[in-house]
Structure formats: C-alpha cells, structure tokens
Amino acid sequence: MLYVITGPPAAGKSSWIQAHATARDIVIDLDRITLALTGPGAPQWNHDPLHQRVAQRARYAAIDEACKHLADLDCYLIHTMPNAQAMARYRQLGARIITVDPGEAVVRERVAAMRSSAMNRVVTRWYRQHRSTAPASVAQASREW
C-alpha cells in the first residue's frame, strides 16, 4: 500500500509516519534523504539548494523503485503539495492520501521556531491551495516542538 502524506511544512507529517510505519516499511521523506546525503552537522531542515537538488533526484528514484514493490511492502511518501499529475499517479497506484494539518496558527508557530522564514511562503501557498479543496484532515498533535 502506498500512503501519501501531505500537509504544510512543520505540520507533523514525519511524526505521523513515525506513529504508523514499521521497520519493514519504506519511508520516502525529502528531509531524511537530504540529511542522509550531507555531511556531519548538516541542518535537519533549511537545506542548501544544491543538497536539495541531489536529494530530490534520489527521492524520484526511490519513489519509482518502491512503487514496483507495493504488493510486498508499504511505502510512506511525504509530498507536501502534490500537483494534479502526481495526484493522478498516486490514485492510479491505489494510494491512501493522508493530510496532516494541525491548523495554520500551530504551523506558523512551528515554522517560526524551527524553519527558515522563507518557509512561510510555502505555508501561505499550501493554505491558499487547500482552503477551497479541503478534505478531512488528520489533526496532528505530534511531538513537543
């Protein structure tokens, strides 16, 4: 089964996966991939654009390979804002789409505490896009921030 976890930055998508995935499952998380590909002391978030570019290519390869094995394993994929083409592909694969959203005020507090101020633009875009098409969200009281 493919689980696509969406939601604004700092919503608790990784925490949701931590609570649901097992050691046998595949987790595709751009932040984790970037961290794995960078040297000691690299930031957990706010990655260098070149690091992100390399990690993004690794992410695409991981998605393609994992989707070949969905009959044998579960895959948890974080995709903050999938476009229509990505959503169509995920639906074709029978994905379960999970939206994690603790609310805009909580997200903005977390971004202010942990992320670059540039991430506020992504938060604004995410909420603008989802206000008109808001499906049921998973309230995520994830970890202590």
Question: How would you characterize the overall build of this protein?
Answer:
With 145 residues, the protein is of the alpha/beta class. The protein has one domain: Rossmann fold, CATH 3.40.50. 47% of the residues lie in helices and 11% in strands. The protein has helices spanning 13-20, 30-37, 49-67, 84-92, 104-114, 119-131; strands at 2-6, 26-28, 75-78, 96-99. Strands 2-3-1-4 form a four-stranded parallel β-sheet, with helices on both faces.
Sum up the structure in keywords.
145 residues, Rossmann fold, 6 helices, 11% strand
Quick take:
With 145 residues, this protein is α/β, with parallel strands linked by helices. It contains six helices and four strands, in the order E-H-E-H-H-E-H-E-H-H. Helices cover 47% and strands 11% of the residues.
Low-confidence spans: pLDDT under 50, at least 5 residues?
140-145
Rounded to the nearest angstrom, the distance between the terminal CA atoms is 30 Å
Query: Topology as H/E string?
Result: EHEHHEHEHH
Give the number of domains.
1
Largest beta sheet: strand ordering: 2-3-1-4
Given the C-alpha coordinates, what overall shape results?
globular
CATH architecture: 3-Layer(aba) Sandwich
Could you outline the blueprint of secondary structure elements for this entry?
Layout: E1 2-6, H1 13-20, E2 26-28, H2 30-37, H3 49-67, E3 75-78, H4 84-92, E4 96-99, H5 104-114, H6 119-131
Parallel strand pairs: 1-3, 1-4, 2-3
Helix pairs in contact: 2-3, 5-6
